[in-house]
Each structure stands twice: as C-alpha cells, then as structure tokens.
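Predict the 3D structure for this chain.
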Amino acid sequence: MALGSNLQRVLLELLSDLEFKLTNPSHSKVQKWRKRYLKFMQIGFKNQFYMGQDIYIRNRGNLTLGDRCSLGSFTRIWNYAPIKIGDDFMSAGNLTLNSGTHDPIDLQPKGSEINIGSRVWCGVNVTIIAGITVGDDVVIGAGSLVINDIPSGCVVAGVPAKKIRDIDRTGIQIWQPFATTN
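Done. Predicted structure below.
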C-alpha cells in the first residue's frame, strides 16, 4: 500500500476504536466509523454487524461477513486467502482466523480458504487455521485450536478441537442482540 493509503487505514482504525470507546457501543447502535473502515478495506458485509475494539484485518478484500456478525475485541484476521463468515456469527474476544500457511517441505507461502457457517459461536481465544470449513449451528469452546473441519450441529473444544456433543436447534429461536432496524 502507498503511504497515503496506509495513513488512511491507520486513521480509520483509530477513529473506529475511538468511536467504540466514546459511545459505549451495543449491537443496536450503528458503528459508522467501522463501516467506513470495512468499506476502505474492501470487506463484504451486511448492514447489521458489531465489532469490538482493536480489531486487526491484515489485507484488503478476502473477507466476507454475514448478516448480524459480531466480532469480539482483539480479533485478528489474517486474510491471505478468502475467509467467509455466515449469518448470526458471534465470537468472544481474541478470535484468530488465519487463512495463510506454508508448505511444510519447501516452506513456500500459500493461502487456503476458511468457510464458517451460520449460527456459529466461538468462545474466547479460539484459533481457526487455513483450509478449515465450519458447518452451521456450531459452538467452538474457549481456547480451542481448530485444525480439522467441523460438521454442522455440534459443540467442539480443545487443542486440537474435538467434537464433544451434538446440538439440535430445530424449533429454537436464537438470541438476536441486534435491533430490528439499523
């Protein structure tokens, strides 16, 4: 990025965090500076989203956020390859998504897409690495390291994350922290 573009990025990041700290944001409040930042970063997003403070997104593009997506404070996104997050996603703080990796033999850098389904909740300090697909209706426990795909409808936890039990949300009205209009 050119110096002017880097400066613009830094200013938008600072204004976004300042807005967060000064306005006591909630899911029902529009984060105007965050929207500007996401547009500048060429991130696909729907109207309703929430982002905590000190969010780091490595590259422009290669990130799509579903509707009613909520990223906790101190989230780190290394979007070397596309990362797609479904609707009604929630994460606690310190989520790490890294779609970059290296070939273990020749150490050449490469990217591999991350796909996260809808109605997924990540606890604090979750890490999801390159090439992973997470199904719909999944809970990922705090401190988990996701190195294998996760099927829909289950709870996983651990290092590495392993299936703990199934969950069935049939007929369940999931919590909606967002206002009906934003």
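Helices lie at 3-23, 32-40.
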